[in-house]
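Sample pair:
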Amino acid sequence: MTAARAAEHFGRAEGTIRCWANRYHARRLGKIGRTVYYDLRDLAVIERQIRNGHPVPDTWQARADLVSN
């Protein structure tokens, strides 16, 4: 999912999504031209952790563990 689509999905600014992606090293699925595609599940975990006031794990693998538990 692009940062623009994720921004629509989460009701956040596109810049916020890009900030999360950079700060928390969101899982990148690929890039076409200048457009980066992110893993929606990873962004969802980041959003949930921030919304609930919990720390965001450092890696996408650690965030994936939060979903599977």
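The longest helix spans residues 40-51.
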